[in-house]
Automatic annotation (TrEMBL):
It comes from Artemisia annua (Sweet wormwood). This is Zinc finger BED domain-containing protein RICESLEEPER 2.
Length: 172
């Protein structure tokens, strides 16, 4: 029995491994010779619900989509055409996931900005809302990471009394 059980095709643990595997090509950008040739590695593809959900959250945040976007019939149809196994989360679940994403990204940013070896530049922008006649200011941090990629992150959004330098300085 000890010899048969691990190799048996009816063993549920082995059933998945006996199926034909799906392959995916993980591309590498440039091989460094200046010709722009693409190369990559061939790997087994595996369904990963966490990765799909993470990409969905990133899409909603970066594209500034409303949470109810995931409940739109066209998006549901599109998603099911890509991966029928995946059950789309509700807008309420997306809202919770975006909040978690924000907390994680904030921790990463604070860790990066807390490093004394990094230089950070701050910019401000002020404007007055047309309908409310309220002055606002956004504070943005600009920095270059360890891979020499430039980033900018909004680190604060404040209401200010006016666009004068003294008022902006007090808020900063």
């Amino acid at each position: 029995m000890n010899f048969h059980y691990p190799a048996c095709k009816f063993n549920p643990i082995n059933a998945e491994s006996l199926k034909q595997q799906k392959l995916c090509l993980t591309k590498k950008n440039n091989n460094g010779d200046g010709e722009g040739c693409s190369s990559g590695t061939l790997q087994n593809w595996k369904y990963d619900e966490k990765a799909i959900r993470s990409c969905l959250i990133e899409l909603i945040v970066l594209a500034e989509l409303p949470f109810k976007f995931v409940e739109h019939p066209a998006f549901i149809k599109y998603s099911k055409s890509l991966q029928p196994k995946y059950n789309l989360p509700s807008r309420h679940t997306i809202s919770r996931d975006v909040s978690k994403f924000y907390v994680e990204e904030k921790k990463k940013l604070l860790k990066f900005l807390g490093n004394p070896n990094h230089t950070i530049h701050l910019t401000t922008d002020t404007w007055t809302s047309a309908c409310q006649k309220i002055n606002y200011m956004v504070i943005t941090a600009h920095f270059v990471d360890d891979d020499w990629v430039m980033h900018k992150r909004v680190i604060n959004f404040k209401r200010v009394n006016s666009h004068r330098g003294e008022d902006i300085g007090r808020v900063l």
